[in-house]
Amino acid sequence: PPFDEPPAGRGSTATAERKPRRTGRTIGVVVVVVLVLLVLAAAWLAFRALTVKSELEQSRAIIGQVQHDERDLRDALGDLGDHAAAAASAAGDPVWRVAEIVPVAGDNLRGARLAAESLDVAVNDLGVPALGAFGGDGEGSAFSRVLPVLDSAAPEVVRLAGELADVQKSTALIGPVRDGVDQVAEVMGGAAPLIELLPEMLGANGPRNYLLVFQNNAETVGLGGSAASQSLVRADGGSIDIVRQADSGRYANDTPVDVEVPQSALDLYSDFLVKRINTSSSRPDFPTMARIVTEWWQRDIADDQIDGVLSVDPIGLARMLRATGPIQLATGDELTEDNAVDLLLNEAYVRWGPQETKHFADAFFASAAVSIFDKLAGGDFDLKDMAWAVGEGIDRGNIMFYSPHEDVQQVVEPLRLSGILPEDNVDATTIGVYFRDESASKIDYYMDSAIDVAERCTDGRRTFTTETTLHLDIDQAAADVLPEYVRSQTWGSSQFRTQVYVYGPPGTTVDSVSVDGRDVTLMRDDVQDLGRPVAWFQTYLAPTERATVTATFAAEDGEFGEVELRSTPMINKTDVELTSEGCGR
After folding, report:
1. Dist CA 230 CA 224 (whole Å)
2. In 42, 156, 230, 473, which residue has its Cα 20 to 30 A from 465's Cα atom?
3. Cβ neighbours of 96 (radius 10 Å)
């Protein structure tokens, strides 16, 4: 035949030989392409990572400049916002997001992205618009202008806080990423619930009433000073106004308010805790004071709903004046950061005669409070300086807050702002030293104090020795010519009585006590209050005299954090020394 058929099987064999070669070439091409893509993706990811690193480092440098007063906050926020946005954009790249599924490396990429996004939200969604609101952009009060900013940013802040908390659990995070994630998570975790609650607290959904208590440190009482004057502040849609005011003379003192307090508190502070509004701050637990003052107000002034109690003293207010600038009072006085403490806690008592002093001094406090409050409510202050003033005031016990609303108090409770002593020693071993003037005087303008705490560990036993010294730094001649209202209503200028309460760490017991001075007495050392052992002393000081009381608390060695001291905020700053011997951590 003209066309012979190929031998059986010949054509199929050739085809079979060609197929594996083609398949092999195809696989090789695919592998090469994949490898090239992986290399390109890795290079792109490395480029993006370097971008994120560079932008975050520049952001950190700007934050440092602001913190060290090398740059104005308003000027810095613009640049900070640009760097934050660039970092977030680079970390939000699709290739980056896909790479987050890779074991080990993925968690680190996710952590870096969340840190970048958090900075972007904090600066561009919160910081810049909030600064604009407080800078006078738009209509209404500063706080009413900031409400939509909070509403808009809250969902993202809450989301990021949750995701950061989740990535924190990863054991794959490397050192620098771990440090960065932990720092950002702490900030966002603390901010999220507060930003969620602030609109409600500012009256976004209806009026909220707050009792503002002004403590007078010239008459030392526990948490700060006597509760000299009170104001009802109303927040409604971001507008904040003082509705009414009262001073201690408006209350039915000596008729106790109906507030349940533990027997331990009455054992230490007597029923004066609930029968005199001035001594409502005796117990070093701000929720106790807040509930007592609220009951005083509702019983004797007006039956207002109270949604929170805020306490501020002149020391805290003086710091705020750095942010507001000088304030003109109704009396014609100019109140400044430098003269506020002297003017409010000393000079006010020199101006008026004995019969007028109390009325005019309380009115003076009220006038100062209203003037400062108007500045704050209007947003007429430097935001950075105010943040410093409030933070410092909280850390030093000059500013405290309590809310009867469970959701708000739950956020406040772990913070120093709450005025609550810690219940354990895990994060810190806290010792408290508190003073209460019992001279019916305003002598504490002249009182100096020093507290030394020595922690020692030997043979499985841990002790905490607290030595407290009071010094009445005024001579007899000067004391004799003090205004009558400043001198003791009982002993004149001859002597003054101060109680000292030393609260040991939870889980310890009073091991020993000692006293040194002309007339110093241990009153009790067998009372447990707020879950802590208490050593209670009484001192009598004549002008120029000193008194020292010492209490040692002991426990079997266990989990104890670094020693921390909390004490009554004094006009003359307390000298503090903390030492530890043989207690390795």
Report:
1. 15
2. 473
3. 20
Helix orientation angle between 10-67 and 73-91, rounded to the nearest 10 degrees: 170
What whole-number distance in Å separates Cα of residue 550 and Cα of residue 219? 23
Q: How many CA atoms lie within 13 A of 480 on its CB side?
A: 3
Task: Look up the CATH number of domain 208-408.
Answer: 3.40.630
CA distances from 507 to 391, 434, 493 (A): 30, 20, 42
Matching CATH number, 421-581, of 3.40.50.300, 3.40.50.920, 2.60.40.1170, 2.60.40.1930:
2.60.40.1170
**Backbone CA torsion sign across 155, 156, 157, 161:** positive
- CATH 2.60.40.1170-classified regions of the chain: 421-581
The β-bridge relationship of strands 562-567 and 428-437 is parallel
Q: Which residues of the chain form CATH 3.40.630? A: 208-408
Looking at the DSSP bridge assignments, the partners of residue 452 are 467, 577
Per-residue model confidence as pLDDT tens digits over 338-388: 999 999 899 888 877 555 656 666 667 777 777 887 888 777 888 888 889
pTM here is 0.86
